Each structure stands twice: as structure tokens, then as C-alpha cells.
Amino acid sequence: MKNIRFLLIGVLFGIIMYKSEAASWYRIYEMFQFRSFHMYGIIGTGLATAILIVQYIKRKQLKDTSGEPIQFVDKKMSITRYLVGGTIFGLGWALTGACPGPMFTLLGAGYFASMGLVLVAALAGTWLYGIVRNRLPH
Amino acid sequence: MMMNIITDPWPWYISGPLIALVLFLLLREGKDFGMSSNFRTMCSILGAGKKTSFFNFDWKAQRWNLLVVLGAIIGGFLADTFLTNGAPTEINPASLADLQKLGIVDEIQSYLPASLFVLDGTGKQLAILLIGGLLIGFGTRYAGGCSSGHAISGLSNFQLPSLIAIIGFFIGGLLMVHLIFPLLFG
After folding, report:
1. Other CB atoms closer than 10 Å to residue A56's CB: what's the count?
2. Of B126, B135, B161, which is closest to A77 when you measure between CB atoms?
3. What residues form the membrane-spanning segments (chain A) (predicted)?
4. ipTM > 0.90?
5. Beta-carbon contacts of residue A22 (< 8 Å; ≥ 6 apart)
6. Is the dihedral of CA B51, B54, B57, B63 positive or negative?
7. Which of A64, A122, B58, B159 has the fewest C-beta atoms under 10 angstroms from its C-beta?
8. Contact across the interface for A133 and B54, Cβ inside 8 Å
9. Which chain A residue lies closest to B23 (C-alpha atoms)?
10. Can you spell out the DSSP letters for A85-100?
11. Taking CB atoms and an 8 Å cutoff, what residues of chain A touch B159?
């Protein structure tokens, strides 16, 4: 049952990515030109709603479906890895217009060959990171 | 005219809160909302853990997230098949004019520009897709997350590292669109 719930959450997510046009290369291009409010509106209202949700969960100390308390783990503070890693991702995001979620959405939306190549390359990129990560500043 | 919620694109004020709903549904299952960690899981499944300790972990514990991306593929198919009117994405005319100048697109006809995403066998297109993917895979893991993991999950929990990552996303995106695109396509 839990498996089906994860699959359905993914279906919902995929539909949202497509219908919101967050998976559209054009929207990402426009966003990085600061010429449209659309993507900022999505991220802004998404974030605002998410903040309310997270605060509500923390105040009410809500439990998950297994009865465990819902926990939030703090990210380890650093500047280099987030700034440099983020910049590298940003270059790829603007070039392909696809962040990892939409990449999968677009695979299903008929861009199988091109997004398949992007996905294979993304796996290679993560693999490469895994190999060199001990030599990188974090 | 009333918006057709089934086939029209959704406005930002509906889309944003729905993304937060996905976050909530995953938190409710005791999981975190983040897509790029699936790349690491997939590398592990492909055997990357044999030589590289970063991939030597119990990937089966991440199976739930693979189901989420499988769902995202199905969701993309369903939306593209049943939930669209096929109308071109309406972007700012100034942006469209720039794209015409760069020779990326004459007019917007489909969800993505065909010159980049319908394979034509040219090395340039191949290089763009592969280098783009490589940067995404490398950068997301180095930064410990992507748009979902940092901009929604991390920021909603007031994580400063996520804010730094997003500043990075924009440095990279702005460099690409304003400096590299004119060199690449001009």
C-alpha cells in the first residue's frame, strides 16, 4: 500500500511539473532573464505554503503514517559546496531547462530520447562527483 | 472566459501550493522531498558502490523515492496525453525575440524547443544535452540537492545552506543565459 502511495505522490508531482510549466525550458529561460513573474510566483507561493506546513508540523509535533514523529534534520553549514555545487547545477539547469524532477516528467511527456540522454549524463555527473568528492572542498 | 483547469496550464498561485502539498504528503510518510538524490541511488544500483564508497549504501532504503520518480514519469505522460490543449508556452515577447535572435526557435510550437530536444544527429545538440546533464548530476550532488531539496524542503525549514545553494543556482543560470548562450548560439 505504501508503495502505491509513493507512486501516486509521484504522479501528482509529475502532473504539477508539467501543468505549471516548471518543466518548460522556455519558462526557465525567461526566469533567468527576470522577465516573467511565473516561476518566481511558483517558487514563492510554494515556499510560503511549505513554511506554514513545516511550522504546523513542528508546533503540533505531528507523526508520520508509521507513527514516528516527523523530524527535520539541519543541513551542515558550509559555503563552498553549496555555492560552487549550486553554480554548477545552475549552469546545467539553464542549459537543459530541466531540474531533476522535471527531467523525469519530460521523459514521460514524449521527450524520451533527449531527456534520456540528459538523464544518462546526469548519472555520469553524479558518479563523477562520487569519485572525486574527497578531493573537492566542501 | 473561464479557465479550463483540465487543459490550460496552471497559474503560479495554484502550482506553488500544490508543490507544497507534495512536500506535505512526503513528510507525512516520514520522507524528505528531494529529487536529485535519486541519481545517487541509481548509480548505486548500477554498481558504482563497488569502487566508490559514496555509492556503497543500502539503496533499497531509497526505493520509495524511485517510485516517486517513476510516478513523475507517468504523471508527465498523463499530463502530455490528456491534460493539455497543446497551446504554446506564453513567455515574455522580449524573451521570445531573444530566442529568435539566437536561432533557437522561430516560434513556440511545443512544450520544449525542437532545435534542442528533438534529436537531429548534430554533435552540437548532443553536446548540449550531455554537458547539461553532466553539470546537473555533478552540481546537485556537490550542492547536496536541487530545486526541490533546497528551494522548497530546505528553505521551508529555514536552512541557510539552502539559501546559499539557491544563490549558486542563480549565479550559474545567469552566467549560462547571459554570457554562454550568446557564445553558444550567437
Report:
1. 11
2. B161
3. 38-57, 78-96, 108-132
4. yes
5. A16, A39, A42, A102, B15
6. negative
7. B58
8. yes
9. A50
10. HHHHHHHHHHHH---H
11. 74-75
